[in-house]
Write a structure and sequence with these properties.
Pfam families: CutC
GO cellular component, one term: cytoplasm
Strand content: 15-25%
Order of helices and strands: EHEHEHEHEHEHEHEEEH
Subcellular location: Cytoplasm
Largest sheet: 8 strands, parallel, barrel
InterPro entries: CutC-like, CutC-like_dom_sf
Shape: globular
Radius of gyration: 17 Å
CATH architecture: Alpha-Beta Barrel
Protein name: PF03932 family protein CutC
């Protein structure tokens, strides 16, 4: 019998972490600056997350932009992996590419070795690879636990056909987690594609934030436990119908 697909929620704040756990997230992707695609969280947030009742995996991404290493980038990532391990987190989330739009196998191998017993997720740098099937094979060879993908499309619902093909290619050798623009309305078609997990923010605008737009600070988004519960119910209903 197929296992139940899990729901991973990405957060970038201490209150977001608490709200995600309260909503029933199965796993947390811990970040800073989700508006920039997610950067490495602070050591303080990592330590808080290690006390949570669900596994928390830290994004290891020292700078915004693409996923090609710049000067000092490897040293920063290795240091952040050490911090995540010292904090007691369950895993890390990484992705490094070469300029020719392939995964940087040498860099990833070094980072994975540094992770030790922590689980490793390959993030959506994967979606920028010219050959995603070759990238999936490399991730399996390197010992990555799961890959996060939208099928190379702007959102997972748009890339569902490619995601299904990737799941078929993976054949249980690695977890495939769909992410990007996922809500309760699109969960069924993605679960039907064969994914092992869904990844979402389930966020809404923070209605309690003071208006800071006068100094160029936009309204932040905050995790919605209700949206998590809605998505979890949709997932449970889909599984029960099978």
């Amino acid at each position: 019998m197929r296992h139940s697909q899990q729901l991973e929620i990405c957060v970038d704040s201490a209150d977001g972490l608490s709200l995600a756990v309260a909503g029933g997230a199965d796993r947390i992707e811990l970040c800073s600056a989700l508006a920039l695609g997610g950067l490495t969280p602070s050591m303080g947030l990592m330590r808080q997350a290690a006390l949570a009742q669900v596994p928390c995996h830290a994004m290891i991404r020292p700078a915004a932009g693409d996923f090609v290493l710049r000067e000092g980038g490897m040293e920063a990532m290795l240091g952040d992996i050490l911090a995540a391990n010292d904090a007691g987190l369950a895993g890390i989330v990484i992705g490094v590419m070469s300029p020719d739009r392939k995964l940087d196998a040498a860099a990833l191998s070094e980072l994975i070795a540094a992770a030790g017993n922590m689980q490793v997720t390959l993030h959506r740098a994967f979606d920028l690879c010219r050959d995603q099937f070759a990238a999936l094979d490399l991730a399996i060879e390197l010992g990555v636990a799961r890959v996060l993908t939208s099928g190379g499309a702007p959102s997972a619902p748009e890339g569902v056909s490619r995601i299904a093909a990737l799941c078929n290619h993976a054949a249980g050798r690695i977890e495939v987690m769909a992410g990007g623009g996922i809500g309760a309305e699109s969960a069924g078609q993605l679960l039907g594609a064969g994914v092992d997990a869904l990844h979402a923010s389930c966020s809404i605008a923070d209605a309690e934030q003071q208006d800071c737009r006068g100094i160029g600070i936009e309204t932040r988004r905050i995790t919605s436990p209700d949206r998590i519960r809605e998505l979890k119910k949709t997932m449970a209903d889909w599984s029960a119908a099978r």
